[in-house]
């Protein structure tokens, strides 16, 4: 076996997609569908996705997706072998990342609770446990259309930028990431009221008759006014009626009991748990 950089995006995407369907291999930051994973890999550098190869067969993958100049989400570890040799290869890959990306000081991991091999990797890398999120899913539409929600257009870029400034100190990477995904696989909707953008919701449209709510946010000045409820209600209604989805999913932190109860009232149910970790370069 040898370590190499990603060369074939389609082959790598297929490997990630097939293993990521299984809870014991599932990694949170890898996108859901084959098409969206191909798009995700096309946006990262070859050296940002390392593979363990056995001749022409991919055994394991370990990559990063930059958040900004100093932070990155880790796309892995995802592997079909969990022996000691594979673990050692992944540790070597990790050291390669640290050496070749000296500017990145913080890495984030997201692994399914059944990803036992991933948990052992986290111990070996001495990461910090951050907490757990639930994936929640609904297969029924209990909502109604909300007229204040509109589809994003370039004319609203300044307003969207203002709300991202409220959310992030270094807002540009996340803003650009969201705006660059708008198209066949992602949609962005704004809550516009009194001529002011007060919230937004970012939706991923999958090719398996499902939709994911990637992000929902209400500006701090307009909380507790039902805006979050209206955005999620709109997204669910839109997914079922416009895209003929059979299910809608989202993630919520396990400690946010009020949010969980809120989503349950809209028909969402918990289907699995994701554990989150952080590695900080000393």
TrEMBL record:
PROSITE patterns: GNAT (PS51186). Pfam families: Acetyltransf_1 (PF00583). Residues 150-282 form the N-acetyltransferase domain. It comes from the Bacteria. This is GNAT family N-acetyltransferase. The lineage of its organism: Bacteria, Bacillati, Bacillota, Bacilli, Bacillales.
């Amino acid at each position: 076996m040898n370590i190499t950089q990603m060369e074939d995006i389609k082959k790598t995407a297929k490997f990630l997609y097939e293993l990521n369907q299984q809870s014991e291999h599932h990694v949170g930051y890898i996108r859901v569908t084959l098409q969206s994973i191909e798009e995700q890999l096309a946006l990262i550098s070859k050296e940002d996705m390392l593979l363990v190869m056995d001749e022409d067969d991919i055994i394991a993958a370990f990559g990063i997706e930059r958040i900004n100049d100093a932070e990155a989400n880790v796309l892995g570890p995802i592997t079909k072998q969990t022996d000691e040799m594979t673990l050692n290869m992944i540790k070597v890959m990790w050291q390669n990342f640290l050496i070749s990306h000296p500017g990145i000081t913080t890495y984030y991991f997201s692994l399914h609770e059944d990803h036992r091999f991933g948990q052992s990797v986290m111990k070996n890398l001495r990461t910090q446990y951050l907490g757990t999120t639930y994936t929640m899913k609904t297969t029924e539409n209990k909502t109604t259309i909300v007229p204040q929600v509109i589809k994003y257009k370039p004319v609203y870029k300044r307003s969207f930028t203002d709300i991202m400034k409220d959310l992030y100190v270094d807002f540009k990477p996340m803003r650009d990431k969201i705006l660059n995904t708008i198209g066949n696989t992602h949609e962005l909707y704004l809550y516009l009221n009194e001529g002011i953008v007060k919230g937004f919701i970012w939706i991923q449209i999958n090719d398996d008759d499902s939709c994911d709510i990637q992000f929902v946010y209400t500006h701090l000045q307009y909380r507790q006014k039902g805006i979050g409820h209206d955005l999620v209600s709109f997204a669910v209604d839109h997914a079922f009626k416009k895209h003929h989805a059979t299910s809608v999913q989202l993630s919520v932190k396990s400690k946010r009991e009020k949010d969980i109860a809120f989503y349950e009232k809209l028909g969402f149910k918990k289907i699995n748990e994701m554990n989150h970790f952080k590695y900080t370069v000393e």
